Amino acid sequence: xxxxxxxxxxxxxxxxxxxxxxxxxxxxxxxxxxxxxxxxxxxxxxxxxxxxxxxxxxxxxxxxxxxxxxxxxxxxxxxxxxxxxxxxxxxxxxxxxxxxxxxxxxxxxxxxxxxxxxxxxxxxxxxxxxxxxxxxxxxxxxxxxxxxxxxxxxxxxxxxxxxxxxxxxxxxxxxxxxxxxxxxxxxxxxxxxxxxxxxxxxxxxxxxxxxxxxxxxxxxxxxxxxxxxxxxxxxxxxxxxxxxxxxxxxxxxxxxxxxxxxxxxxxxxxxxxxxxxxxxxxxxxxxxxxxxxxxxxxxxxxxxxxxxxxxxxxxxxxxxxxxxxxxxxxxxxxxxxxxxxxxxxxxxxxxxxxxxxxxxxxxxxxxxxxxxxxxxxxxxxxxxxxxxxxxxxxxxxxxxxxxxxxxxxxxxxxxxxxxxxxxxxxxxxxxxxxxxxxxxxxxxxxxxxxxxxxxxxxxxxxxxxx
Length: 466
Hints:
This protein is mostly helical. The chain has helices at 17-47, 51-87, 91-127, 131-164, 169-190, 200-225, 236-268, 273-298, 300-309, 313-347, 353-365, 370-385, 389-415, 417-455.
């Protein structure tokens, strides 16, 4: 296969912005849909095992989300550097940043896996899991942590590859694991072809196998397809500092959604295992629709980063406007689909009447805010693309602490678990509208500062910090 030239130029600074957004978003949406549909099909398998297994996987969900969020944050810090370096056609900086990012992510994910195995029982007990459900959740987690480093490297690779200018290859990486989980899962879960039936633990091992395949695909891109190995660690400290300057706030920002999910799971535990299981089923179904706006949001970092690095400010604004419209349009479509299809979607996984009641309630409320959740995602990615991660962090913390938590307590008191769901929707709508306003202010300020610096001859074109 043909390899890249020594000097690689920016991909997204020319051509129709809408086309670039559509291409980047489509690939990531397909990848995300493959992931969420794979998880949904896995949930169909687990639903055949029983309500306790569904509850166990629900307790694992916010932990997996949180660790994925932290890892993606590190990758996002590197992706912003790569996007701007590509905007300036600096391949050496790109190779160095990617190599050092992989070292950082590998150290982080391996450390987390060890800590996770040692603390799993205490963590899940704190979330409200008890007795058999607690035992099932801990057993699943111990196996899941084996695959976490592989998945972490692959997940970070997706963002790095997009910022490098390849919109297609991440889709292969993202789709590979769900395909493995869907195909291999039932053999391990139910013991097909004479294999031992491992139940929920079989689902965990299917995740490990899928993560290993993702790692192999990411390694092929890095080592062979693009030959981006940087053999020196002389500037590792400098690279790490630059990555974590954006990566730590971005990771903290990404962590807010899993914390919200963990908080919701804890709040719903007071209503019983069945309600928790219903929340787990419904949130996985809603995630299929939600991943579309997340996929749209992922197009922001490479597009804004490269065009900002190339001083194409009008294209930056066109990117954001296109993404905002796409998120709100899809949010309306998704809400209608969920409203009318809720009963059918839930009954395909479980016919438990109490589970169905709580899950259908969720799907009648949360989808109203999917488009506004997309606005938050776009704004957060755009803040990071400008290497201004703090506003994104403040925005996400405010959504959780100032808006969601008080509304959830009030909603729970007045309307039970339905009030908790409503609090999520209201928080998404309020913060989504504010996110647009705040980003426009920050972008105008950043543009003015950058132009003033260049006019005064103070900007180093090889190491621009927006």
